[in-house]
Amino acid sequence: MTSNIRKQIWKVGAVSAAVLALAASPALPQAKTVKIGFISTFSGPPAAIGNDMKNSFELALDHHGRKLGGLPVEVIYEDDQTKPEVGVQKTQKLLESDKVDFVVGYIWSNVLLASLKPLADSKTMTVVTNAGASQLAGELCSPYVFSTSWNNDQTPAAVGQYMNQKGVKTAFLIGPNYAAGKDMLAGVQSTFKGKIVGQELTRWPDQLDFSAELSKAREAKPDAIFAFYPGGAGVQFITQYAQSGLKGQIPLYTAFTVDDLSLPRLKDLAIGIPGAQEWVADLPNPANKKFVDDYRAKYKATPSFYGAQTYDAAGLIDSAITAVKGNLSDKEGMRKAMEKADFKSVRGGFKFGNNHIPIQNFYLQDATKGADGSYSLHTLATIVKDDQDKFHDKCPMK
Q: What integer pLDDT is reported at residue 3 of this predicted model?
């Protein structure tokens, strides 16, 4: 065999070996997409809340260039219909069929509680953007579940403190008979130093006639009434409160009943009814100003606290994916990053407690009517600073 032939055979063999080596080596990583499952209510009267949450999340994705942590985003929206059994079915679909990387949302505490076990058992990174069930803050806390809202009783507890400041000595409490309603009334009682002269828990979510409860409140002759009714039920309650003539007789204090979704319907009826909240549209920080201004420009409305909390969820997820450089399998790395809350919140900043519930301020808000006839909510004062929920000691995470 001549030396030239041997050289040609050697070259062919070397090329073949190189091709085989490339075929046997691991494939280059393909472009990734972060899949997010979003559970909220998109049907019936509460759809206004779900749509505000969705709009805010979509706006946050716009602000992040439709990427989180550098990865393109796919969002799968699911309607829980306000029903726990539907919510858990949709949650399981997202986890088992869609195989999402994150789950976001949940308005209702009872829907969240029904879905919490599959979320925690699957170790799916979850950001709850409204539901504040006390069990989530306490014994059912999870390393994989975070909240960008609050524990249910914190906001009404702030209202109770404000009622003390106003010299209220007796109060009548009214709210819906489900997990959040019970937590809300308990929250007021935890700080209010006066006497509770009556309490009513109403059917949820189908009761919209509150005449019997308002009559009982009138008969009890309290210094004040406290009510918790989110969404359309809140509009009905305040309308009937005013129609009954009680507005001029017994002051009403609320949590989550007057907000930027109900205010355009309530108008003058909302003026003079104070409430508490951890976010108000006029909070003076750059992230909030951009959020509110761009929301108004895109959707021709003012976002609510539901939307603000959901907008923050996108920033939190972005910080987690950025920290692990897009490695979505590194759940421990994402958990540690999320615990730092290192993103620009529309609240101007907060930190997480050991149970992944925010430690944050709660503000006094009130409705006003502008010279142009429009209505808006404004911050009047800070009721409590850096408030931590009282259930964090029951959380096994330390």
A: 47
